[in-house]
Known about the structure:
By secondary structure, this protein is mainly alpha-helical. Helices cover 53% and strands 0% of the residues. The protein is elongated and about 55 Å long.
Amino acid sequence: MNAFEDIGAKIEKLPEHVKPELNDFIEFLLSKYGEKNKSYPNFKFDWEG
């Protein structure tokens, strides 16, 4: 069983009223560890002061 199947099996065991909370937590993790902000893709902190 791979990681996705394992996670999916655990999610299926959760009660329906808990799944929206799990979705919120996943969104939080994606915002924290997911793709970085692309607002300033070429920004460098290279000035001297």
